[in-house]
């Protein structure tokens, strides 16, 4: 299903425009081609970064794309959404030299953009094995797993209960990094290898785990995280109180109408993680004049990336530390958030006060899908995460594998891509072993 | 490589503000500085040479005069290296395509306007009569000297001129003799490097009576192939031919040839050095190895005439720092330190040292030593900083050459306690074994 063209995210400019050919060649020429390069070690998918950069320098752009995509089928979206500052770019030896590190993400984008935009085929399905695997959930982990399984000769069927394919890549990634239509184009390109989709199918509602075990040789669980977690405070059901990922999805896909930024004076985002920063930056960039992030702890305790916080400050987002919401107040619609200050030990201090606000977004974590998983016999779940063998993604139930946010508790697209691919090899090894 | 350091002046003279004299006299041709434009596209017209002299060039060798020609298009090709254009440059352009009388009139006009600058006419014709005629007409312009173009390796050589002369010492000597006979101004013979040993044509020029040599002209070359059309580059409607290669990439080869002549006792003529000069340090290399003037073409084709400012100021600064009053004080000053391999000290030892505080952990030194040299660098961990195994280090320098951090890897002298001993010393003593470096 294509996303509507008038959705709110189309108002965001690309925060890192593509490099021109001349810029890319010059930047590639700066790469030192390190031995045993630290950037490769910093990449969860271990892309041979010095090699693809040399290929760009030597004008073998398609070869560069192959190097990237063979390591990471999501190389196109990762080039835009990866927190490169804490991964490859953060590991670049130029940092130690006091010089700007190589723009690895943007070079990766330079190489991969034409492949996805023109639909250039890079991969082929392997020799058919006759085996078939179900991948539950339609986000990066499942797609990466399915894509790799097909390269290995198996059939792969993705069951997706949500309206759009691509998971958080489509409806959760900050739109100035990547828009929903770009994610959908990538999904389409990945699907072309032969991924089969069953859209609108929800396990537990439309099909049972037993039925999946009957139809499929193995099952990969790539369900991600659940809905936005509530705070359990009075007034949370008022109009104008959003879960942060629901708000972002509305801005990105328009599946649910996004709030009109012209009618919001003050927006309060509650939380200290990267989702809180994303929601706040998106509201600020949409034109909301007063956007505040309210967080219980001090700045140095925020889980959000420093570089993301710095961007937010530049975009006018205000950070309010050691404040805790007590209630959402209003008459049908949100009018104010009641807050209390916290002392150093996070105990309420002073008189609670009212902060008038037209929108509140809760970014205090996402729920888990434990109830659904409880129906899988012998599946070990700890702290809401499916426990897997890190070597091959296999769960405690021998027919099930998992990866992505469901198994790691919420990480980056690049982690989901790496884990989905690793699970595919785990499944492949088991299928071949059991056939022998 | 030198660079301007902060060392004390050698002769104890004040370092800043002291007047230095950049003027040179190359075989009787005087110029206010040693930087001349080489014969080529930058010296094609009076307008260009006027602007060059305004910019500060000390001399100009006019684009070669001769019989009318027709040029091809395209005619230039370049090699890029790591994002830098024109690391090497090649051309299949011929001598001037302008009428002789126009060129002569313009040379006269430029010389009148710039009496202190060196104006040299470059010439290329065939028969004795033609040489006599063109030398007389050229000298009528008032030019300061003549350069016989025996160097161009493309086009003209197929007609028996240019490098066809430079590659045949007997012919070269004969034409040089004609020129010496007809000329009243100094005669410079411009040599082609497309030979086995530059001394042969240089000695032929000396025997023929030339007053100086200039070297090198361009190297016969093919820039590459267009991978879509399969045409050699530069391409003339899908076809190509060998052209003359020059630019920064050729400088070390040119320096070798200048050094060869500078060291040869039997060769006595002044040298005008040419080949890949882009900076004052490039020019200084030629001067230190025996050139009295330095000619530049490609760098001007790349950046324009104003690069001469960098050449002049850099040389002045270096002369002040080292305490040289005039250029002739240091022409050839590096030649005594140039030795045959067999005379170098086999007991001199240096080893590499890596400064961990500035190392950025790229490990290029490790890869270079391990794969490309002598396996003397280890990765002991736990950091990524490599370690030199001094007992194994052969002191080859490769790690220092590939290190991207200036000053991180230094070569430190190790006292072997042994006296100086060269290969030739060992041969004399009868202690030399078989074998040599490959």
Summing up helix and strand content along with how strands pair, one would put the structural category of chain B as: alpha/beta
CATH architecture assignment name of the largest domain in chain B: Alpha-Beta Barrel
Write out the CATH superfamily name of the largest domain in chain B.
Answer: Aldolase class I
Q: Characterize the main sheet of chain A.
A: 5 strands, parallel
Shape of chain B: globular
Taking pLDDT < 50 over at least 5 consecutive residues as the criterion, the unreliable ranges of chain B are 5-14
Separation of the first and last Cα atoms of chain A: 41 Å
Main-sheet strand order of chain B equals 3-4-8-9-10-11-16-17
- Assembly classification: heterodimer
Proportion of helical residues of chain A: 25-40%
Which fold does the CATH topology of the largest domain in chain A refer to? Answer: FAD/NAD(P)-binding domain
Q: In DSSP terms, counting alpha (H) and pi (I) runs of 4 or more, how many helices of chain B?
A: 13
**Percent range for β-strand residues of chain B:** 15-25%
Distance between the termini of chain B: 25 Å
> What is the average of the pLDDT values of chain B?
94
How many beta strands in the DSSP annotation of chain A?
Answer: 15
Topology:
The complex is a heterodimer of chains A (436) and B (438).
Chain A: H1 21-30, H2 38-42, H3 49-57, H4 61-71, H5 75-81, H6 88-91, H7 94-97, H8 104-117, E1 132-136, H9 140-151, E2 155-160, H10 168-171, H11 180-191, E3 196-199, H12 209-215, E4 218-221, E5 241-243, H13 244-253, E6 266-270, H14 274-286, E7 290-295, H15 306-314, E8 318-321, E9 323-331, E10 333-342, E11 348-356, E12 359-362, H16 370-373, E13 381-382, E14 385-386, E15 400-402, H17 405-408, H18 413-435
Parallel strand pairs in A: 1-2, 1-4, 2-3, 4-15, 5-12, 6-7, 6-12, 7-8
Antiparallel strand pairs in A: 9-10, 10-11, 13-14
Helix pairs in contact in A: 1-3, 3-4, 3-8, 4-8, 5-8, 9-18, 13-14, 14-15
Chain B: E1 24-26, E2 29-31, E3 35-37, H1 46-55, E4 59-61, E5 65-66, E6 76-81, E7 84-91, H2 100-113, E8 118-124, H3 128-139, E9 145-149, H4 163-166, H5 169-182, E10 187-190, H6 199-208, E11 212-215, E12 219-221, E13 224-225, E14 232-233, E15 243-246, H7 251-263, E16 271-274, H8 280-288, E17 291-296, H9 298-303, H10 307-322, E18 349-354, H11 364-372, E19 377-378, E20 387-388, H12 398-402, E21 409-414, H13 423-429
Helix pairs in contact in B: 3-5, 5-6, 8-10
């Amino acid at each position: 299903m294509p996303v509507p063209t008038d959705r709110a995210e189309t108002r965001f400019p690309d925060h890192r425009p593509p490099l021109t050919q001349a810029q890319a060649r010059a930047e590639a020429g700066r790469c030192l081609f390190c031995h045993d390069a630290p950037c490769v070690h910093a990449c969860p998918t271990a892309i041979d970064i010095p090699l693809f950069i040399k290929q760009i320098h030597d004008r073998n752009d398609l070869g560069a794309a192959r190097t990237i995509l063979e390591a990471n089928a999501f190389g196109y979206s990762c080039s835009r959404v990866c927190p490169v500052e804490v991964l490859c770019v953060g590991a670049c030896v130029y940092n130690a030299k006091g010089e700007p590190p190589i723009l690895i993400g943007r070079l990766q984008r330079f190489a991969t953009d034409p492949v996805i935009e023109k639909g250039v085929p890079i991969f082929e399905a392997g020799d058919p094995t006759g085996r078939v695997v179900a991948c539950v959930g339609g986000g990066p982990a499942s797609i990466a797993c399915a894509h790799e399984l097909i390269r290995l000769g198996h059939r792969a069927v993705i069951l997706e209960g949500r309206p759009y394919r691509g998971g958080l890549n489509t409806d959760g990634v900050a739109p100035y990094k990547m828009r929903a239509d770009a994610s959908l184009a990538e999904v389409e390109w990945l699907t072309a290898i032969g991924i089969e989709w069953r859209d609108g199918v929800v396990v537990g509602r439309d099909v049972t785990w037993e039925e999946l075990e009957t139809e499929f040789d193995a099952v990969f669980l790539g369900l991600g995280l659940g809905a936005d977690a509530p705070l359990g405070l009075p007034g949370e059901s008022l109009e104008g109180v959003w879960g942060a990922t629901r708000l972002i999805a509305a801005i990105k896909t328009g599946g649910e109408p996004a709030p009109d930024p012209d009618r919001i004076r003050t927006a309060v985002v509650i939380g200290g993680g990267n989702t809180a920063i994303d929601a706040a930056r998106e509201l600020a960039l949409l034109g909301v004049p007063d956007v505040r992030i309210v967080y219980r702890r001090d700045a140095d305790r925020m889980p959000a990336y420093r570089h993301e916080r710095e961007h937010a400050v530049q975009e006018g987002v205000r950070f309010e530390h050691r404040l805790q919401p007590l209630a959402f107040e209003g008459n049908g619609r949100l009018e104010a958030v009641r807050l209390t200050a916290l002392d150093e030990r996070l105990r309420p201090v002073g008189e609670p006060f009212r902060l008038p606000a037209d929108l509140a977004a809760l970014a205090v974590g996402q729920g888990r899908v434990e109830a659904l998983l409880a129906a899988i016999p012998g599946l070990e779940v700890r702290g809401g995460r499916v426990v897997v063998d890190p070597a091959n993604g296999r769960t405690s139930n021998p027919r099930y594998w998992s990866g992505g946010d469901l198994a790691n508790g919420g990480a980056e697209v690049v982690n989901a891509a790496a884990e989905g691919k690793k699970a595919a090899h785990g499944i492949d090894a088991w299928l071949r072993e059991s056939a022998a | 490589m030198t660079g301007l350091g902060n060392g004390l002046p050698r002769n104890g003279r004040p370092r800043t503000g002291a007047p230095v004299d950049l003027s040179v006299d190359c075989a009787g041709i005087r110029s206010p500085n040693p930087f001349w434009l080489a014969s080529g596209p930058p010296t094609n017209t009076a307008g260009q040479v006027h602007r060059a002299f305004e910019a500060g060039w000390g001399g100009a060798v006019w684009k070669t005069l001769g019989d009318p020609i027709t040029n091809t298009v395209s005619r230039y090709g370049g090699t890029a290296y790591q994002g830098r254009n024109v690391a090497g440059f090649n051309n299949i352009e011929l001598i001037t395509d302008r009428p002789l009388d126009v060129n002569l009139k313009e040379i006269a006009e430029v010389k009148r306007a710039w009496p202190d600058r060196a104006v040299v006419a470059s010439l290329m014709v065939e028969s004795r009569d033609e040489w006599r005629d063109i030398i007389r007409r050229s000298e009528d312009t008032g030019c300061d000297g003549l350069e016989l173009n025996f160097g161009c390796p493309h086009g003209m050589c197929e007609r028996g001129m240019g490098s066809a002369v430079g590659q045949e010492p007997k012919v070269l000597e004969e034409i040089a003799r004609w020129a010496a006979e007809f000329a009243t101004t100094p005669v410079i013979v411009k040599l082609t490097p497309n030979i086995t040993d530059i001394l042969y044509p240089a000695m032929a020029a000396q025997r023929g009576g030339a007053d100086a040599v200039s070297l090198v002209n361009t190297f016969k070359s093919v820039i590459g192939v267009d991978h879509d059309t399969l045409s050699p580059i530069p391409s003339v409607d899908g076809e190509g031919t060998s052209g003359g290669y020059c630019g920064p990439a050729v400088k070390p080869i040119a320096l070798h040839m200048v050094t060869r002549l500078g060291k040869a006792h039997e060769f006595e003529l002044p040298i005008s050095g040419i080949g890949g000069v882009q900076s004052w340090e490039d020019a200084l290399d030629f001067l230190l190895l025996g050139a009295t003037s330095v000619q530049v073409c490609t760098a001007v084709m790349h950046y324009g005439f104003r690069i001469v400012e960098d050449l002049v100021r850099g040389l002045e600064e270096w002369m002040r720092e080292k305490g040289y009053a005039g250029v002739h004080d240091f022409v050839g000053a590096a030649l005594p330190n140039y030795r045959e391999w067999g005379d170098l000290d086999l007991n001199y030892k240096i080893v590499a040292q890596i400064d961990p505080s500035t190392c950025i952990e790229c490990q290029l030194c490790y890869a270079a030593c391990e794969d490309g040299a002598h396996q003397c660098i280890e990765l002991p961990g736990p950091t990524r900083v490599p370690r030199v195994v001094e007992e194994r280090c052969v002191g080859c320098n490769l790690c220092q050459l590939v290190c991207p951090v200036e000053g991180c890897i230094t070569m430190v002298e190790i006292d072997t306690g042994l006296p100086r001993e060269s290969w030739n010393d060992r041969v004399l003593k009868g202690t030399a074994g078989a074998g040599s470096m490959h």
